[in-house]
Amino acid sequence: MPTPKNPKSSPSSQSANARKPLVYGAVVVVAAGLLGFASYKATAPDTAKDTTATGPAAEVSADPDAGVYPELAKLARRDADDKLAIGPADAPVVLIEYADFKCGYCGKFARDTEPELIEKYVKDGTLRIEWRNFPIFGEESENAARGAWAAGQQNRFWEFHRAAYAEGAKEKGFGKDRVKALAEEAGVKDLDRFMKDLDGDAARASVKKDQEQAYGIGATSTPSFLINGRPIAGAQPDETFTRAIEAAAERAKTTGAAGKAGESAK
């Protein structure tokens, strides 16, 4: 599987970092350091044959409070009208995913792990997944990110997500015509509206907001995740996610924390 390039070398990444440094409080600087370190290790060239990270952000302690940062938990939007989310807004656990459609590891997660998490945890109301567009590989990444947002405006985000992450999809590129074809495959009905939304100010603003949030918490590559404030980087084994979700659900049960993160963030 091709290894994503280190986004630190990207001028757009550098400028975004300059615009939006760590802004979520002193405690988050520590969490961001862990996420940035493990995020880089997860996609560094010497791990091309190993899609798992071994840094601190990839470890899940048996202690449900270990490695959890309340300030990061507040980034869950819990907006019932969010077109790029799945699961109840008041679910006890929120998984925030920062990802790029050109990222091979993101595709691996989307195909191999995410469907199982949806089946096991989203459908029973335990988990909510909130997508954040984090394009780091240039113009085609931006096209796909805005296309995903535009598909969401017609309630077809997850269908677009599935089509864009299908085996072999990223190898075909994400030029404008290709993104339109993916929207058609995803069942987007009004393709003229889709193309207008794709290039509209609202799409650009939404993608920029998500992207800057990712840089703000120290994410340096994709995919990066937060599970109720616990950072996880890379396409980890399924067990890493299930342990983190179950620990977060247990913590929410004992503390009555479900929903509070979203309320305090508003």
Automatic annotation (TrEMBL):
<dbReference type="InterPro" id="IPR012336">
    <property type="entry name" value="Thioredoxin-like_fold"/>
</dbReference>
<dbReference type="InterPro" id="IPR013766">
    <property type="entry name" value="Thioredoxin_domain"/>
</dbReference>
<keyword id="KW-1015">Disulfide bond</keyword>
<keyword id="KW-0560">Oxidoreductase</keyword>
<keyword id="KW-0472">Membrane</keyword>
<keyword id="KW-0732">Signal</keyword>
<feature type="transmembrane region" description="Helical">
    <location>
        <begin position="21"/>
        <end position="40"/>
    </location>
</feature>
<protein>
    <submittedName>
        <fullName>Thioredoxin domain-containing protein</fullName>
    </submittedName>
</protein>
<dbReference type="InterPro" id="IPR036249">
    <property type="entry name" value="Thioredoxin-like_sf"/>
</dbReference>
<keyword id="KW-0676">Redox-active center</keyword>
<keyword id="KW-1133">Transmembrane helix</keyword>
<dbReference type="Pfam" id="PF13462">
    <property type="entry name" value="Thioredoxin_4"/>
</dbReference>
<comment type="similarity">
    <text>Belongs to the thioredoxin family. DsbA subfamily.</text>
</comment>
<keyword id="KW-0812">Transmembrane</keyword>
<feature type="domain" description="Thioredoxin">
    <location>
        <begin position="38"/>
        <end position="250"/>
    </location>
</feature>
